[in-house]
C-alpha cells in the first residue's frame, strides 16, 4: 500500500500556509507589511539557505535549471501574492490565486506527461466549485482584471510552475528544493522595495525575534510542502494544497473576522472531498492490462 506520508505532509504544510494571515495581520499593526516583510523574513531564511545550497551544489548541478526555476517561480509566487493581498481585494486575490490547480494539471499533462484520470478531473471540478462557493461569486468578482488581479493570477501560475519544477527535479536534494525559493523571495523582495521605494520600519529586539519565529515556522511549512510535492504528481498535489484555503477561511471565522455561511461550509466540504479523491492512491495498471493495450 502506498504511503500516505506525502499527502499528510503536504496538507499539514498547506494548513500552516493558510494560517499565515494571522502573523501577517500582526506585523501589519507594527507597520511591517508587503515587500519589506518579504525582504526581512526571507533574507533571514537565506542566511540558512545559501550555505546549504552551496554545500549541495554538486548534487543539483546537473539539474541547475530546475533549481533556478524553483527559486524564481517560488520567489515570485510569494512576492506577488503578498503584494496583491496587501493592496487588493482579498476575495478576488484568493480566487485568482487558487486557479493554480488548473495550471498545475495542464502543466503536468504538457510537461511531465501526467494523465488526466476521470477521478482527477472530477476532483479538480469539485475543488473549483468549492472555491467559488467558499469565496463567493459576485459582479465585483467578475469585473475586469486590475493590476492587483494580474499579480494574484501570476502568483498562482508561478506557484504551479514551481510545483512542476519541484516534481521534475528528482536529483535535487529536498533541502535545496525547500530553501532555494527563500533566496528568490529575498532577491525579489529587495528588488520590489527598491522599485516601490518601500523601506522597512525600525526593528527593535521584540520585533526581531518575532520575525525570526515567523521565519522558522515558515521554514517548517515549506519543507513539509516540498516533501509532498516531490513525492506526488503535480495535478494531485495542486488539489491537496487547496487545504490552505480551508484553513484560511475557517481560522478567519474562528477569530471573528466573519461568520461562516452555508455556502462556505458547503464549499469547504467540496474542497475537502476533492482533496481526498485526489490524494487517494490509484491502483497500478496490471501487467495483463498493459500487454492487452499493447
UniProtKB/TrEMBL annotation:
<feature type="transmembrane region" description="Helical">
    <location>
        <begin position="237"/>
        <end position="259"/>
    </location>
</feature>
<feature type="transmembrane region" description="Helical">
    <location>
        <begin position="9"/>
        <end position="28"/>
    </location>
</feature>
<feature type="transmembrane region" description="Helical">
    <location>
        <begin position="34"/>
        <end position="54"/>
    </location>
</feature>
<feature type="transmembrane region" description="Helical">
    <location>
        <begin position="178"/>
        <end position="199"/>
    </location>
</feature>
<feature type="transmembrane region" description="Helical">
    <location>
        <begin position="205"/>
        <end position="225"/>
    </location>
</feature>
<feature type="transmembrane region" description="Helical">
    <location>
        <begin position="150"/>
        <end position="166"/>
    </location>
</feature>
<feature type="transmembrane region" description="Helical">
    <location>
        <begin position="92"/>
        <end position="112"/>
    </location>
</feature>
<dbReference type="InterPro" id="IPR037185">
    <property type="entry name" value="EmrE-like"/>
</dbReference>
<feature type="domain" description="EamA">
    <location>
        <begin position="9"/>
        <end position="135"/>
    </location>
</feature>
<dbReference type="InterPro" id="IPR000620">
    <property type="entry name" value="EamA_dom"/>
</dbReference>
<feature type="transmembrane region" description="Helical">
    <location>
        <begin position="119"/>
        <end position="138"/>
    </location>
</feature>
<keyword id="KW-1133">Transmembrane helix</keyword>
<feature type="transmembrane region" description="Helical">
    <location>
        <begin position="265"/>
        <end position="281"/>
    </location>
</feature>
<feature type="transmembrane region" description="Helical">
    <location>
        <begin position="66"/>
        <end position="86"/>
    </location>
</feature>
<dbReference type="GO" id="GO:0016020">
    <property type="term" value="C:membrane"/>
</dbReference>
<keyword id="KW-0472">Membrane</keyword>
<keyword id="KW-0812">Transmembrane</keyword>
<protein>
    <submittedName>
        <fullName>DMT transporter permease</fullName>
    </submittedName>
</protein>
<dbReference type="Pfam" id="PF00892">
    <property type="entry name" value="EamA"/>
</dbReference>
Amino acid at each position: 500500500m502506498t504511503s500516505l506520508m506525502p499527502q499528510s505532509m503536504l496538507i499539514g504544510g498547506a494548513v500552516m500556509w493558510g494560517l499565515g494571515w494571522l502573523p501577517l495581520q500582526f506585523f501589519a499593526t507594527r507597520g511591517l507589511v508587503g515587500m519589506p516583510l518579504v525582504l526581512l523574513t526571507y533574507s533571514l531564511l537565506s542566511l540558512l539557505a545559501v550555505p546549504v545550497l552551496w554545500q549541495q551544489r554538486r548534487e543539483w548541478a546537473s539539474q541547475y535549471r530546475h533549481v533556478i526555476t524553483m527559486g524564481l517561480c517560488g520567489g515570485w509566487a510569494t512576492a506577488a501574492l503578498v503584494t496583491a493581498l496587501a493592496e487588493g481585494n482579498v476575495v478576488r486575490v484568493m480566487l485568482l490565486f487558487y486557479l493554480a490547480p488548473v495550471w498545475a494539471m495542464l502543466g503536468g499533462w504538457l510537461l511531465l506527461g501526467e494523465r488526466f484520470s476521470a477521478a482527477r478531473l472530477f476532483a479538480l471540478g469539485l475543488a473549483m466549485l468549492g472555491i467559488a462557493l467558499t469565496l463567493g461569486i459576485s459582479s465585483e468578482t467578475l469585473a475586469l482584471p486590475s493590476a492587483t488581479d494580474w499579480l494574484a493570477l501570476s502568483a498562482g501560475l508561478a506557484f504551479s510552475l514551481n510545483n512542476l519544477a519541484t516534481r521534475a527535479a528528482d536529483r535535487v536534494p529536498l533541502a535545496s528544493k525547500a530553501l532555494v525559493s527563500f533566496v528568490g523571495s529575498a532577491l525579489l523582495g529587495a528588488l520590489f522595495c527598491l522599485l516601490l521605494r518601500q523601506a522597512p520600519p525600525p526593528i527593535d529586539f521584540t520585533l526581531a525575534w518575532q520575525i525570526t519565529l515567523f521565519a522558522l515556522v515558515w521554514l517548517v511549512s515549506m519543507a513539509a510542502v516540498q516533501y509532498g510535492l516531490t513525492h506526488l504528481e503535480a495535478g494531485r498535489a495542486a488539489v491537496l494544497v487547496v487545504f490552505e484555503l480551508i484553513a484560511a477561511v475557517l481560522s478567519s471565522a474562528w477569530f471573528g473576522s466573519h461568520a461562516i455561511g452555508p455556502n462556505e461550509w458547503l464549499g469547504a466540504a467540496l474542497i475537502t472531498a476533492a482533496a481526498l479523491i485526489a490524494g487517494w492512491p490509484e491502483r497500478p495498471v496490471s501487467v495483463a492490462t498493459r500487454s492487452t493495450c499493447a
